[in-house]
């Protein structure tokens, strides 16, 4: 009895609406008695008993305002929001000015149910009162803007059709947090299972693409799944690295996944077609706070994630950390106020274009719950721009999150509990509106191998932006199968260099500056030649001014790679060879090819390569590697090569 009285006192302190008996708006002692008893049951969590008593109180006095308002709270607790709205309306109609805060609570309930007109009216009424708390006033002003936004968004809906990913992916259990490789061929997601031994647990599930629209039957990632929870994963662009969230401390169970605090980020790498034992990402990424929902940039140099004090406590923000020159993560930095608010930002996803960020938030103007937003990287400010709401009905009055956008930018994926699904949360896709699509990208994919033995090789890849000389990608092909893949943004020009000790390097380029629609991937295997006499390398990234032997500035990147190769292989001697197309006379082309080869020779000598190790020669139009009938084939014939003359 003492406990019940103590809880009732706490209840009265916490909710000023429920006043001592002398301040209740009723003349009926019976109604008053029922109300006090109902308040006590409500405080103890006995909502059914409270409801029955409040019905008696209202029957005893049909104008008993506090009984209606408390019953609205009870109905809300019992999961009957529409009934709760009716009781709020009935109670407030008796005297609209008695309890200003109840207009706010009614407005929030309207908003939660997507009844925006009612919410707008109630928020407006509430804000007309003068003596209201500042924090509640600020929230009401913010939510009023949400109502105005939502009412306008509903008038202009986005074209939106959800397509269930089908029975090969979805089951009666919840599926959520999808992630994709950049070639769109491997899907990984989280599935929640109900087990007899462990109860509810989360596992990783994978699936391979069958064709453009269908996935093969999904399968558990057994080497990663434990009897505990794994979730919120993200794959690197090449599918070789996985970052995920684990919240339990597994050391006592031999799993080696001890954390720093609440939830931590772990990573694993695919080696010989199996995932390695997960490793905690450590400081400064993980702290005693809650870290989760990571997203890796396609170049592997940045990681975005969500941090909060603890899950469900305090607000959550999006952070970013970058790899420094020694391949260590820098201290994570909170994204700017265009992204983070004083409320919750979650479910961050950086598209493979590395220029477009998607995230969920209830702190930006939207439909009332957590909405999905898109922000573009501003190259002038070197920061994230003002986010755009993805619009209705992608966003609704409910919480939307866990969005994944396909590499081509057309399809988006997310989890939804729609009634036509297979059960609880299913994974769906939909076509993303053009105004919130990322930049167009493509990718380069293949295998590196020994040109002599066909053995698969681990080799270093370096991708450089021609315009600014900035290194975009610095990675390696797989040590087991030699495979590689990396992203190319359309509208940019790139230089590629592939190298491995003991081998001649390989160079290529991707001139995509004038390409804005063709997203067909580049599929090409790369043979590396062991260093040997008479082996030849085409220097595909050496460019001259038209009909001249003057090097273009962009050629210095390739020449720098050649200098590095010669410095690393100090016994190698080479001959620089120049070639032209067939335009012009043979005599003119021969002279031009000699002059161009000499220009490269001079550049190397100027950069401390001994002239004793170098020769040069021009062949003019004598040795074409393609016909000279088109500009594309003529460009192939205009080339600079080197051949190994001594080792």
Word description of this protein:
With 647 residues, this protein is α+β, with helices and mostly antiparallel strands. The protein has 4 domains: 2-154, Serine Threonine Protein Phosphatase 5, Tetratricopeptide repeat, CATH 1.25.40; 177-436, 6 Propeller (Neuraminidase); 441-513, Immunoglobulin-like; 531-647, 2-Layer Sandwich (60s Ribosomal Protein L30, Chain: A), CATH 3.30.1330. The protein is 24% helix and 28% strand. It is built from 11 helices and 34 strands. Strands 6, 7, 8, 9 and 10 form a 5-stranded antiparallel β-sheet that branches. Strands 15, 16, 17, 18 and 19 form a 5-stranded antiparallel β-sheet that branches. Helix 4 (65-77) packs antiparallel against helix 5 (81-94), helix 5 (81-94) runs antiparallel to helix 6 (100-112) and helix 6 (100-112) runs antiparallel to helix 7 (116-127). Mean pLDDT is 90; it is low at 1-20.
């Amino acid at each position: 009895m003492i406990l019940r009285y103590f809880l009732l006192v706490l209840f009265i302190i916490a909710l000023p609406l429920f006043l001592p008996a002398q301040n209740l708006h009723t003349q009926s002692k019976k109604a008053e008695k029922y109300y006090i008893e109902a308040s006590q049951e409500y405080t103890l969590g006995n909502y059914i008993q409270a409801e029955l008593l409040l019905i008696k109180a209202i029957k005893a006095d049909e104008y008993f305002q506090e009984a209606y308002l408390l019953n609205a709270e009870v109905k809300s607790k019992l999961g009957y929001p529409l009934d709760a709205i009716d009781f709020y309306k009935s109670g407030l109609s008796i005297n609209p000015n008695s309890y200003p805060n109840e207009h706010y609570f009614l407005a929030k309930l309207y908003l939660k149910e997507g009844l925006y007109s009612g919410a707008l009216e109630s928020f407006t009424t509430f804000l007309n009162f003068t003596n209201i708390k500042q924090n509640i006033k600020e929230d009401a002003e913010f939510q009023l803007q949400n109502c105005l936004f939502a009412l306008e968004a509903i008038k202009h809906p986005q074209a939106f059709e959800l397509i269930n990913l089908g029975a090969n992916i979805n089951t009666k259990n919840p599926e959520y947090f999808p992630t994709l490789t950049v070639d769109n061929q491997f899907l990984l997601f989280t599935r929640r299972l109900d087990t007899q031994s462990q109860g509810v647990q989360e596992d990783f599930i994978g699936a391979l693409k069958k064709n453009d629209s269908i996935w093969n039957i999904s399968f558990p990632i057994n080497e990663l799944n434990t009897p505990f929870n794994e979730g919120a994963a993200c794959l690197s662009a090449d599918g070789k690295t996985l970052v995920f969230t684990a919240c339990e401390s597994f050391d006592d169970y031999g799993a080696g996944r001890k954390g720093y605090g609440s939830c931590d980020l772990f990573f694993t790498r695919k080696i010989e077609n199996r995932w390695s034992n997960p490793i905690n990402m450590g400081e400064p990424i993980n702290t005693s706070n809650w870290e989760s929902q990571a997203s890796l940039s396609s170049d592997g140099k940045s990681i975005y994630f969500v941090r909060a004090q603890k899950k469900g406590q305090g607000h959550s923000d999006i952070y970013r950390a970058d790899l420094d020159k020694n391949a260590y993560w820098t201290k994570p930095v909170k994204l700017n106020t265009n992204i983070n608010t004083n409320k919750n930002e979650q479910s961050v996803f950086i598209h493979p274009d590395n220029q477009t960020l998607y995230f969920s938030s209830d702190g930006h103007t939207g439909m009332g719950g957590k909405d999905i937003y898109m922000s573009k990287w501003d190259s002038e400010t070197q920061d994230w721009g003002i986010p755009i709401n993805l619009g209705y009905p992608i966003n609704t009055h409910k919480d939307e999150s866990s969005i994944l956008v396909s590499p081509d930018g057309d399809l988006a994926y997310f989890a939804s509990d729609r009634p036509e699904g297979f059960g609880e949360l299913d994974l769906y896709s939909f076509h993303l509106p053009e105004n919130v699509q990322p930049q167009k990208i493509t990718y380069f994919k293949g295998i590196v191998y020994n040109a002599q033995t066909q053995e698969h090789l681990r080799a270093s890849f370096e991708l450089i932006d021609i315009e600014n000389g900035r290194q975009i990608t610095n990675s390696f092909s797989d040590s087991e199968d030699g495979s590689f893949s990396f992203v190319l943004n359309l509208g940019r020009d790139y230089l590629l260099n592939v190298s491995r000790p003991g081998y001649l390097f390989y160079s290529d380029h991707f001139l995509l500056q004038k390409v804005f629609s063709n997203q067909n991937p580049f599929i090409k295997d790369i043979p590396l030649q062991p260093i040997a006499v008479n082996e030849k390398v085409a220097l595909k990234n050496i460019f001259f001014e038209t009909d001249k032997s003057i090097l273009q500035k962009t050629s210095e990147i390739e020449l720098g790679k050649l200098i590095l190769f010669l410095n690393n292989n100090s016994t190698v001697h080479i001959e620089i060879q120049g070639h032209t197309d067939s335009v012009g006379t043979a005599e003119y082309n021969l002279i031009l090819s000699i002059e161009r080869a000499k220009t490269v020779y001079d550049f190397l000598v100027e950069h401390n390569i001994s002239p004793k190790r170098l020769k040069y020669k021009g062949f003019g139009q004598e040795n074409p590697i393609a016909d000279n009938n088109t500009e594309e084939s003529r460009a192939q014939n205009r080339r600079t090569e080197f051949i190994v003359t001594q080792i």
